[in-house]
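Predict both folds.
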Amino acid sequence: MSVVRCKICGITRLEDALAAVAAGADAIGLVFYARSPRSVSIEQARSIVAGLPPFVTTVGLFVDMPQAEIEQVLAAVPLDLLQFHGDESAADCDALKRPYIKALRVRAQDDVTALVDAYPDARAVLLDTFVDGVPGGTGQAFDWALVPARLGKPVILAGGLTLENVAAAIAQVQPYAVDVSGGVELAKGIKDAAKVKDFVRAVRTVEGSM
């Protein structure tokens, strides 16, 4: 049986992080991008991470942030994994010498395989929806048929996922993991514990049928 992992991104409150963990989420995402309505300060992030139980992966999301500023965050917040969501090159990502995933925004004219191959040291790639001028978190899904069957790296599927469409997304793409933010919210940055629970249950139900 294939196990599809689940990340709840855009966490801004400890209670939301704990609700995600209680629901069975494998990872939580903390957004260090000031222009996002889901952004957290170093102090907020440190408090959230300190309150988590063990065996939960903490992911820090960065968008074209200077290396020195990322290192400031890392000095204060014990993150397990970095997620680069901007126009960072492979060299930019590798410079931190930390495990990372690279987010790639997918559109019809792109050679997705070539985009993935440009980041040989990424632990995985996160495929999100391309919206001009917006690095992510749009709440819009993309055409999953654009994802090649074999990419050579674990695929984390994001972009407009909800309780209603996540089963179809998993069945079509067969990703390593799914990533949701807006699809389980009461308001931007505020999670709905019931939606989180139902979303994770839907992911696990698909696993059981694969």
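Second protein follows, with its predicted structure tokens after the sequence.
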Amino acid sequence: MSAETLTRTRVKFCGLTRHEDIAHAVALGVDALGFVMWSPSSRSVDLDQLASLTARVPAFVTRVGLFVDPSADAVEQSLPHLDLLQFHGDETPAFCAGFGRPWIKALRMRDGIDLPLEAERYTQAQALLLDAYRPGTPGGTGESFDWSRIPATLAKPVILAGGLSAENVAQAVRRVMPYAVDVSGGIEASRGSKDAREMTAFVRQVALADAD
């Protein structure tokens, strides 16, 4: 069996705020769970909530903290509860790398963005998360972007985000062949509350695309 045959697309559920949603995600075999540490977001959690929610996450499921131009103190206070950091603002590479944790850099697909150059700039990142661009909004727009803008080869693994749902994620996986897919609004019943059926359908569609 070749290495290519063994390849699968990783799945990250983001914007988790409820214990029952975490339990269902874990049961589905989701690889990573995202917690929004940016207070303007309706999906944000505070430190106490983060501690409580992540305490239920078992081994081998990655706990990801999402930050937008945070202070160093804000990141440091969250570290005991996180395995991976995700930066969505204008953070410098040096800032992102300053916490002794693996990290990924989110890039919004604005006009004229040079992804190879950004990959070189954020060379220490574990991956680049590509999301839709809306002025003044750092992420979570529920909008997709033109996937053909992603180079066929990039120096960093690609995590595809932006407007994904069970309806289009299989197409996205077949078209982009990303390392991982990231979803929040596409599996929600309401902001911050996930829908178990949509969560299940999303994971099944990714698996179906991988099996092709």
